[in-house]
Specification:
about 250 residues; alpha/beta; TIM Barrel; 8-stranded parallel beta barrel; about 40% helix; about 15% strand; globular; binds phosphoenolpyruvate
Amino acid sequence: MRPILIAGNWKMHKTQAQAREFLREFGTALQSSSQDSVPLTRTVSERQVILCVPYTDLAVVVEQTQGSGIAVGAQNLHWEDQGAFTGEISGPMLVELGVRYVIVGHSERRQYFGESDETVNQRLAAAQRHGLIPILCVGESKHQRDQGLTESWILEQLDRGLAGIDLEHLVIAYEPIWAIGTGETCAAQEANRVIGLIRQHVGQAHLSILYGGSVKASNIDEIMAQPQIDGVLVGGASLEPKEFARIANYQA
Ligand code: PEP
């Protein structure tokens, strides 16, 4: 059985006060949107909920989710443990805060901050060196899809990003760039096909592979009904507690 992961990516949203408010409402919404009215801890222990929040929210979210079963993730990390890298955050800093997951290679990092497969690879190695589980994001642009380059592009990203990386302690998220924040979801069957291809290429039967790109309460059930899809990475819809709770409590 591959673990089911429901991860939210808050991107650059929410102050500490807003994070506290979210968590209060999310706890209640998780229980009321659960079909079985199971307590928070049970709901999330069967499906690992992860909140990937801005650095400034990490300590608050770790503290406020203690004992709830919710795991906390960061949205990036530097490959060195310390040094003259102004504005960067390292693995040991995240570990000390109680962070367990970290997103690496999100398309926004690649597009706006010049991340390459080489630096993605270094960040993945740094995360694993410190016992963090990296969530590696891969995905094609609209142009690449239109040119029929989806498969070759993703396999290239995987080969370069994963060189020398431990495939046991890793999560991959397939996030077609054209579906991120656009409201345009990749058809569930198509996401399933690409994720199957990723699984076959990586050759790791137990690897959890997520789908990301305009996931909402209205499409989660169909997405999670796909046999290759082990969870979701959710941007916009993870900012709203009721919406994200409904996603976490998708109906299998
Ligand atoms: C993301 O940020 O990884 C993402 C998938 O965003 P959205 O759900 O808003 O498309």
